[in-house]
Recover the amino acids of this structure.
């Protein structure tokens, strides 16, 4: 057991999807407690947070979505991929998960999203 890394003893995040505005939004979820949402930047995905999620999940509910058009989320051709639109989709994503109050960790393009 001495050779086992700490992250290997923590359960892997669950891969989930939720429908928002007719598109599937993929996200990783792990842990229990106060929620923290991790937003990736451009041109990455929730994979960016793969080494951070296990540590945070020890004490918090961690949610790492793939923004629309990125990673394993849908990539609809009929929407505008603007910061404003991503922000609206993110707000609806948070509403669907009933996250009224959450910590938000952002990287790069993920930074301008919070409203």
């Amino acid at each position: 057991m001495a050779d086992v890394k700490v992250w290997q003893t923590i359960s892997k995040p669950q891969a989930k999807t939720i429908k928002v505005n007719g598109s599937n939004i993929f996200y990783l979820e792990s842990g229990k407690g106060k929620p923290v949402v991790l937003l990736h930047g451009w041109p990455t995905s929730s994979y960016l947070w793969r080494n951070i999620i296990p540590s945070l999940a020890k004490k918090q509910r961690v949610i790492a979505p793939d923004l629309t058009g990125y990673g394993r989320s849908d990539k609809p051709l009929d929407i505008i991929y603007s910061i404003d639109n991503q922000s609206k989709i993110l707000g609806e994503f948070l509403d669907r998960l009933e996250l009224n109050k959450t910590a938000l960790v952002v990287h790069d393009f993920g930074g301008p999203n919070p409203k």
The radius of gyration is 14 Å. Strands lie at 14-20, 23-30, 35-39, 61-65, 103-106.
